């Protein structure tokens, strides 16, 4: 039954998508790669020494919102620009799995793990020629701690001593930030905080000379500054044309060495035309979110290289826990049984992915043991018929009733639900049709409403005007879920989108950051993952194996689940 139903829905999906569904979505974007799917991983012939010049054009599926400020952005497409325009005191090396100096030339952590000392580089200048100074560092932290700050980055610095007193207007300075001299500062935490090097040390720095006189409350409205960012990174803004492109050019005075490339362009394009444009050399590089054997074969025939990359996050169905019926855990568990995630991965993703059973990166050291998780009908030994039976039983446990192919709520009315989802990510669009069919198997009419990503995020999810929605999360190297799942992140625009408020959830999240040793943290996060699997505040759907497709002339890159831009100043074209 699973094979036949999935095949029929896939045919419908293909017909709809080829009739013109277009738009864009967020890219959520190596040991766990599916070996059964052999992608072109043959090494390219050694091109010799890196060459200077040329522009790499990357195809992207949605226009950035244009909030190019490291403390204000929330859009993943904005991040694609911010990541190569701005720097932090530290950077994360995903291949060595450690934080390394960037704007700081040196750093050290005290023996009690409470104080970090940084020594700033002397050879760093902003893109407008102004020197990078200690004022920029202090300003960046104070900007986010300001009582009028409207962004979502406060949890990153919340553990700094005195930052809450500053935010609450009880202090004029952040007591935990001690400027020793023009080049040295110490940042003291109020307690041991495991992700400190990432959240505080790698905190991205913005220019004080541009932003310090801007009213913090109105900073998000300063389009003149937001769309013309000034950073310290290897590339600087040349032109942003909304819905068309972001054009970045080489910053010759970059402190880690002048980039080889003249520039990088992020060009908004449709996935339906991007393949051909890559083959003709119109594009140099693109994500392949819809991996398949046919896709890989097409690229190989055109001489295009494809690398597999297991995504660092997951796609999920958000259920609004604040409102009926999703304030009932039985309903949420019933939805988990209803959706045929295993069938989707096998027949739509063609095995280029895996079912997500917890809201963590699939390769994370903190991921729970599978024996401790409920697979909700999507395990290797589960059957679809059993999943449907369990789904109906859970719905009935919540007070609904199933009769003659129709599900009725506690008032005796047929159940009708609406799923809102963003266009642009083809597998996610296809999944909406699959989930609609799955709901019909338990007698529920699921209406689908598609819209562009920015509209869904800003007008509905951020405003909590939804019951069911499809979104995705990209994660960071540390498994700390505070910024997404702690109850104090449940506010309009906050990242706790389902509105999950649970005392044990908060306790585990707070406990997990109090230890430095990975082995001490592991059981805490495993229990947290098991709790999320049980309570299903939002249903993780699948982790995708994506592709990075590029012309063989494009060299010097090192793609990783956590970043596409590692050592981006070393990219070059061998032409």
Shape: globular
- The first-to-last residue Cα distance is 52 Å
The counted number of beta strands is: 22
Mean pLDDT across every amino acid position = 90
List the keywords.
22 strands, 3 domains, D-Maltodextrin-Binding Protein, domain 2, 20% strand, four-stranded antiparallel sheet, twelve-stranded mixed sheet, 575 residues, Dipeptide-binding Protein, domain 3, globular, Dipeptide-binding Protein, domain 1, alpha+beta
Question: How would you sum up this structure, described in words?
Answer:
The protein is an alpha+beta fold. It folds into three domains: 55-65 and 225-311 and 547-573, Periplasmic binding protein-like II (D-Maltodextrin-Binding Protein, domain 2, 3-Layer(aba) Sandwich), CATH 3.40.190.10; 87-222, Dipeptide-binding Protein, domain 1; 315-545, Dipeptide-binding Protein, Domain 3 (Dipeptide-binding Protein, domain 3), CATH 3.10.105.10. It contains 18 helices and 22 strands. It has helices spanning 2-18, 76-85, 134-145, 154-157, 163-167, 196-201, 208-211, 223-226, 271-279, 293-301, 329-338, 341-348, 384-397, 426-441, 453-461, 482-485, 503-512, 518-535; strands spanning 55-60, 90-93, 98-101, 104-109, 115-120, 177-179, 184-188, 235-241, 245-250, 263-268, 285-288, 305-310, 314-319, 353-355, 401-403, 406-408, 416-422, 445-451, 468-473, 538-550, 554-555, 572-573. Strands 1, 8, 9, 10, 11, 12, 13, 14, 17, 18, 19 and 20 form a twelve-stranded mixed beta sheet that branches. Helix 11 (329-338) runs antiparallel to helix 13 and helix 17 runs antiparallel to helix 18. The radius of gyration is 24 Å and the shape is globular. It starts with a helix and ends with a strand. The model is unreliable at 7-46 (pLDDT under 50).
């Amino acid at each position: 039954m699973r094979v036949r139903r999935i095949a029929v829905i896939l045919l419908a999906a293909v017909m709809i998508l080829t009739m013109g569904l277009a738009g864009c979505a967020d890219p959520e974007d190596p040991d766990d790669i599916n070996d059964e799917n052999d992608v072109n991983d043959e090494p390219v012939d050694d091109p010799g020494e890196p060459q200077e010049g040329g522009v790499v054009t990357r195809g992207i599926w949605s226009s950035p919102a244009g909030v190019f400020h490291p403390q204000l952005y929330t859009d993943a497409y904005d991040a694609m620009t911010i990541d190569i325009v701005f720097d932090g005191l530290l950077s994360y090396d995903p291949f060595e799995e450690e934080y390394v100096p960037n704007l700081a030339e040196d750093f050290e952590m005290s023996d009690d793990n409470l104080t970090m000392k940084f020594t700033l580089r002397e050879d760093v200048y902003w893109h407008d020629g102004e020197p990078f100074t200690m004022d920029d560092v202090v300003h960046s932290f104070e900007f986010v701690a300001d009582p009028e700050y409207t962004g979502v980055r406060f949890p990153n610095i919340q553990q700094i001593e005195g930052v809450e007193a500053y935010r609450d207007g009880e202090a004029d300075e952040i007591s935990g930030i001690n400027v020793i001299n023009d080049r040295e500062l110490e940042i003291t935490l109020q307690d041991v905080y495991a992700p400190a090097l990432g959240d505080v040390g790698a905190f991205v720095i913005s220019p004080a000379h541009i932003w310090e006189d801007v009213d913090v409350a109105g900073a998000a409205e300063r389009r003149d500054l937001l769309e013309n960012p000034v950073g310290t990174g290897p590339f600087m803004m040349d032109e942003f044309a909304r819905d068309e492109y972001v054009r970045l050019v080489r910053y010759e005075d970059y402190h880690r060495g002048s980039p080889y490339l003249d520039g990088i362009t992020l060009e908004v394009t449709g996935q339906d035309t991007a393949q051909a444009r890559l083959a003709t050399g119109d594009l140099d590089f693109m994500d392949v979110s819809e991996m398949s054997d046919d896709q890989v074969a097409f690229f190989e025939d055109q001489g295009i290289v494809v690398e597999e990359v297991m995504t660092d996050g997951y796609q999920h169905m958000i259920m609004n826990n604040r409102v009926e019926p999703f304030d009932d855990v039985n309903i949420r568990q019933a939805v988990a049984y209803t959706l045929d995630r295993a069938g989707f991965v096998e027949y739509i993703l063609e095995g280029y992915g895996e079912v997500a059973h917890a809201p963590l990166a699939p390769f994370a050291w903190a991921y729970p043991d599978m024996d401790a998780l409920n697979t909700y009908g999507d395990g290797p030994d589960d059957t679809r018929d059993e999943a449907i039976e369990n789904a109906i039983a859970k719905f009935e446990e919540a007070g609904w009733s199933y009769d003659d192919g129709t599900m009725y709520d506690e008032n005796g009315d047929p159940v009708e639900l609406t799923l809102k989802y963003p266009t642009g990510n083809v597998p996610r669009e296809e999944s909406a049709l699959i989930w609609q069919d799955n709901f019909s198997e338990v007698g529920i009419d699921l209406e689908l409403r598609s819209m562009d990503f920015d509209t869904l995020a800003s007008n509905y999810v951020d405003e909590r005007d939804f019951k069911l929605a499809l979104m995705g999360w990209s994660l960071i190297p540390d498994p700390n879920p505070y910024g997404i799942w702690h109850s104090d992140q449940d506010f309009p625009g906050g990242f706790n989108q389902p509105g999950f408020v649970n005392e044990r959830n908060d306790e585990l999240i707070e406990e997990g950051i109090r230890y430095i040793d990975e082995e001490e943290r592991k059981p805490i996060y495993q229990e947290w993952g098991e709790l999320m699997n049980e309570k299903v505040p939002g249903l993780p759907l699948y982790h995708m194996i994506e592709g990075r497709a590029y012309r063989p002339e494009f060299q010097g890159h090192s793609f990783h689940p956590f970043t596409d831009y590692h050592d981006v100043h070393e990219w070059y074209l061998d032409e």
